[in-house]
Every structure is written in structure tokens, then in C-alpha cells.
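Researcher: Structure prediction, please.
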Amino acid sequence: MTFVIPFLLALGVGAIGITRQAWRDEHATWWAATIPLRDLSDLLSRVDIVLAPYYLFMRGWIAIFGDSVVALRLPSLIAMATAAGLTGVLGARLYHPWVGLTAGSLFAVIPSVSRYAEEARPYAFAICFAIATVLALLARRWVLLAIFVTLTGLAHLVALTVLLAHLPLILHRRTSTTAARSSRFRGIRGHAAPDSNDFPESATITAAPTGVEAGKAGAATAVAQGDAAAPP
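Model: Predicted structure follows.
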């Protein structure tokens, strides 16, 4: 629920303007994804080198689904809807399922989110992969974290600044782990067998008078026997 509802909501909101006329940057995407590879290489040697992975992806997408406006924008729409769903999962992981559902739903209806969901540019992918890196970090899935960080950088280099947000999470988890280990160590020491020096002194003190009293009783018995044996 925390993924599906925000995903469907973002999909519906983003699809509202998916048929509007393409603008200049989207024309640049179409042009870069349809020109011969030699011309694309010449283009990337001068401008848009950071968008090379996206242009190459769109070349394969257009070869399968065509180059209509809807076809060009559909990858961004799916990526942004996935980002909304992952936001819901992240909120549920950090706090509560209802918090995740609310966060994902609010994310889905933000105007700037729906705008980039309707645009044939790589920004929706960058957002989606950036959120996925946080989830992978929380789950300690280091291989997935490396993959999603790489995909974030391939989508847009500026999106790698999300790694700064990882530092508080890492420091918090290290502090929590250290505190938990210290607590377990104190618990183990508390349940350990007591040392011989830990016995109360009262036990020793009580034992001493008992021996003295026994000695006195023995001496008194000996004296009494001697008096009985003496002649009248």
C-alpha cells in the first residue's frame, strides 16, 4: 500500500499533461536520440556530455516504442511514479506506514514533480535513483547501494549531492550500534558469576564467633569431666 497508492497517484497526475506540445529541451532529446551515432559523438564532444547515458537509453527506447511525444515522455513518467512509491516505502521504513503513505502521496501531487514526470529529460530518473540509494543504505544492501549511486550519477552528476544526506544516516546508525553493544556488554557483566571477593563480610564475621563458641563449649566440658574424676 505504501508503494502502490503513491505510485498510481503520481502516474495519474503525471499523465494529465503528457500529450502537451514538446518544448525545446525535449526536442534536443529527440534529436540526440535519433541522429547517427557519429553525429551524436560529435555533439557530446561539445555539449551535454553528462546526458550521454540518457541519450543512449532513449535511442534504444525509441527503436522499440517510437518517437511520439507520449513515447518520449513515458520513461520519465514511470520513473517519477516509482520515485513516489519509493518515497512511501522510505517513510514507512523510517516512521510508520501511514507516514509513508502520506509522504508518498504528497510527493506525487507536487507541481514540480508532475512537471518533470511529463518531460523527456533525465531528471525523473535522477530523483528515482537518489531515493533508492537511501533505501539501500537503510537496508545495508551495499551492492544495491553501489548500483543505485552509479545510476544516480549516470542520470545526472548533480544528483550525486544526495550522498551528503547519507552522512547523518551513517553517523546515526554507528552511534546506535555502539550504544547497543555497550548495553549488551553491561548486561553480560551484570549476569556474570560473582567473584569470591564479592561475598558479604557478614558471612565471614558470623563464622568466626561460631568457632569461638565451640571452643569455649569444649573447654567447659573438659573442666567438668576433670572435676568429676577428682577424689573427694
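Model: The first helix runs from residue 4 to 14.
Researcher: Thanks, that helps.
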